[in-house]
Amino acid sequence: MATGPSTSIQAFREVVKSSQNIIVIAGAGLSAASGIPTFRDGGGLWRKYEAKNLATPRAFAKDPSRVWQFYHMRREKARGAEPNAAHMTIAALSVKETLRYICPNAESFTLITQNVDGLSRRALDQLTKTLASKKIFEKVTSEPQSIIEMHGRLFDTICKRCRHREANYNSPICAALEGTEVIVERQEQEPDIPLSDLPRCTQPDCGGLLRPGVVWFEEIPHHLQEIDEIVQKADLAIVVGTSSTVYPAAGYAFEVAEHGGTVAVFNLDRSDGDSEADYLFLGPCAETLPQILA
Ligand code: BV8
Ligand code: ZN
Fold first, then answer.
1. What are the tens digits of pLDDT across the range 14-25?
2. How many contiguous H segments (helices) and E segments (strands) does the chain have?
């Protein structure tokens, strides 16, 4: 009779020490301690704003003003947020010198994140700068390419006309969105911003309507081929802060288990698929991850 996932920290640490190709699969729970709302919890984005009905190409085509106000509110939240201890623990696996310290046999590490807030990348920047300034290691080999943002980036924009993609951290991204985040938060009737006042492309002779640089439902996530190869090779998948309900991300840990790899889940409460996990550590990941993994 399956005994269910182990909660043994010691045994998990042994597995980490012997693993060679490690992946972290992250979801909104990773950024919860940074004040970024998740999708399904209590005041979650999905529930409060039927986010699932906003994160689609059809919703944008039908009501770009409403969709932009949803993303403007999320941009402002992410801008004001700081990486938390869980982001920093994962960032330590993206620096060769610290990865070797935590996982002495590691040949590769990849963070596959569903989050679009950019906090994992910011955590790696912060850690790299700290390690370099403290001269703890002779040199610091940061691996930004080990972070795969499979659902895109909140602060990227894509032009609907010329397809130009660029990072845009302006706050607000256009004058008409100024202050609407408060309206969205209060779920009051949001203004209907005319198309001409929504974010527009600044490429020469374009002026096309911009959209947020994220992957919506029914759109193809980024780097799928690369992710599939990495998942196939992984002997340890650490799943952090995800309800494992959105595919194809939700299937990766299962694939690792399928080919004999180990799966460890760090979550606040039980989630789809953690019954097949080898290890389950319940609690806020900003506490459990640094305590167990570092
Ligand atoms: C696609 C960006 C075609 C935008 C997002 C099978 C195969 C392929 C596709 C599908 C399939 N079945 C269904 C589909 C279609 C669909 C899908 O999965 N639908 C669901 C609803 C069933 N998938 C798609 O459309 C994808 N594209 O299919 O392309 C294709 C075909 C074949 C092969 C490949 C592709 C595109 C999906 C991307 C949608 N974009 N985000 C934006 O952010 O606005 S999804 C978005 O929602 C997130 O990125 C994330 O992926 C998902 C939210 O999930 P979580 O991150 O898990 O967050 P959630 O709130 O649900 O859970 C938080 C968890 O953390 C909870 O468990 C909670 O307990 C825990 N937690 C909370 N606090 C803490 C904590 N844990 C620890 N510590 C804490 N403090
Ligand atoms: Zn353009």
1. 999 999 999 999
2. 12, 9
